[in-house]
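Why do we bother with a discrete structure alphabet at all? Because it lets us treat a fold like text: something you can write down, compare, and reason about line by line. To make this less abstract, here is a complete entry for Carboxymuconolactone decarboxylase family protein. Read it the way you would read a sentence in a foreign language you are learning: slowly, and without expecting to understand everything at once.
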Amino acid sequence: MADEIDSPEELPSTAGELAEEYPEVWDEYADLGEACSEAGPIDDEAKRLVKLALAVGSQSEGAVHSHVRRGLEEDIDPEALRHVALLSIPTIGFPKAMAAMSWIDDLAE
């Protein structure tokens, strides 16, 4: 999975500012993301969907947008991305799942 962490110019303002002000910290963070991604046998599409599910579960709109954007760039079916939100209903509840669905649809529609 190429570049698990966005480059500074692709980041939301706060993260981009951190990356510019503390490039060593950002580089180490990016290296950690890459090491975690490469540490196991899960294929790239499944990794992206898992990362999206974690973002959904943590209710991080920015992370959901990031993983949806990258998933679409990786040619993951938008319905697979939406399925992640549907799968979250029993675990995190209908309102939170629907919020996540709206964040997915911000980019997937």
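What the structure line is telling us, in plain words: The radius of gyration is 14 Å. Residues 49 and 80 are 8 Å apart (CA to CA).
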